Amino acid sequence: MSLRSRRLPLPRHAGRAAVVLLAASLALAGPAGAVSGGNGDEALRNRLRELVDRPDGPPGAIAVLRDGGRVRVVEAGVADIGTGRPPHANDHMRLASASKAFSGAVALRLVDRGLLGLDDTIARRLPELPRSWGSVTLRQLLQHTSGLPDYSRAPEFADLIRADPHRVFDSRHLLDFVADEDLEFSPGSRYQYSNSDNIGVALMAEAVTGQRYEDLLASKVYRPLGLTRTSLPVGYRLPDPYLHGYDVEPGSPPEDVSTLFGASGSWASGGIVSTPTDFNTFMAAYAGGKLISDATRRQQRSFVTGASEPAGPGANRAGLGIFSYATRCGVVYGHTGNTAGYTQLGVGTPDGRRSLTVTVTSQVNRTSNPDLLAHLRAVEEDFVCALLRSPSKA
Predict the structure, then answer these.
(1) DSSP assignment of 239-307, as one string?
(2) Helix, strand and coil percent figures for the chain, each rounded to 5
(3) For residue 102, what pLDDT is reported?
(4) Max CA-CA distance within the chain?
(5) Radius of gyration of the chain (CA)
(6) Residue 33 — pLDDT band, cuts 50, 70, 90?
């Protein structure tokens, strides 16, 4: 889930992680076909090194570029300060708000099957939610034009996280934290990023199928794409091996916050754990529309002005569970995310032939460090240009 909440004081045992933004607002061989090295890769590696060499920079960074069957992995820094080992494309990591693309994939596949309609309302599919929210549609939830208040900013939610960062929430009742609030604006009238939106998307998917969202992810996304290292956990632990995520403050040693928060408080809005390889595979299919019909894809690519959290490279526009990033070298589609210890970008070309993921192991957003975010976005744009300008491979 991307972070839009204020800084929260956490228990003393959380150490310096008390000053990071709330996370829930919160094999050494390369992957098959991976190619590393070359002058172009070295130039890209130097760009990642610029990030990790900053006093406020992340300890590690890794990018995966895919062009058809050719995969290039570029990394800098370390995956684990304690061991000094480099980042690896099969290390696990938190996707944060890039998880919202997965809920988009599930919902749009159900739209294709006729089980959900983009204009289905909360009143029809989730009548147990507040009546004042009833006119909100699935389309508006996916595009962040719903007006739903953001549960992750609710004082009660923040208090519970403050008291116990590992608290296990009932993910199906996260919207209860704002159930006494009216919509923040008339549905469809404007864009406003809200973590509540994708909770609503997942609940709609469960309502029309009678299946758990976790099972829908497996049947609609993981298995069709061969994602074997992607999951939506409940707790705070990460599978080994994993990219360690850090809170970075210049002048102090980075603090490992990889397992500071559990995933149940972000669920469909930010709880997915994956690897650079799996994330890249997903984004190629998702950006290229492989999982959905042409008709549904045209609806998904109806864009309005609105940036992801954090903003991705170039000019951002919001579609249905996906963002358009218009860079100086061309347009790519995808999603970003940030949480304690991790910042993500995943994009693909409109035809799905090429895809890119960029991961850094600290939280970077406009609130925590706008200068570092500007630097990261410039690096991301250089990687997009490298992806789009490379000769196409079969």
Answers:
(1) PSSBPPPEE--TTS--EE-TTSS-STTTGGGT--EE-HHHHHHHHHHHHHTTTS-HHHHHHHT--EE--
(2) 35, 20, 45
(3) 98
(4) 59
(5) 19
(6) very low
Q: Residue 101 has which token pair?
A: 């693309």
DSSP bridge pairs for 327? 330
Element (H, E) at 376: helix 370-389
Question: Which residues is 359 bridged to in the sheet?
Answer: 62, 344
Among the residue ranges 30-44, 320-334, 344-358, the one predicted with the least confidence is: 30-44
pLDDT tens-digit map of 165-177:
999 999 999 999 9
Query: In 3D, which of 270, 236, 234 has the Cα closest to residue 256?
Result: 236
Quick count: other Cβ atoms within 10 Å of Cβ 84? Answer: 9
Dihedral angle over CA of 193, 197, 202, 205, nearest 10: -120
Which residues neighbour 124 within 8 Å (Cβ) at sequence distance 6 or greater? Answer: none
Name 269's Cβ contacts closer than 8 Å, sequence gap at least 6. Answer: 1, 97, 99, 100, 103, 152, 195, 196, 197, 198, 199
- C-alpha dist (Å) from residue 320 to 144, 207, 269, 308: 8, 20, 14, 12
> Per-residue pLDDT for 4 more than 90?
no
- As given in the structure block, the two tokens for residue 200 are 């609503």
Joined together, the tokens standing for residue 226 give 């061969």
Using the 8-state DSSP alphabet, how is residue 142 labeled?
H
CB 256 within 8 A of CB 244: yes
DSSP 109-130: HHHHTTSS-TT-BHHHH-TTS-
Q: Parallel, antiparallel, or unpaired: how do β-strands 323-327 and 34-35 relate? A: unpaired
pLDDT digits (tens, 9 = 90+) for 181-231: 999 999 999 999 999 999 999 999 999 999 999 999 999 999 999 999 999
> What DSSP state is assigned to residue 11?
-
Q: What pLDDT score does 394 carry?
A: 41
More confident residue, 394 or 197: 197
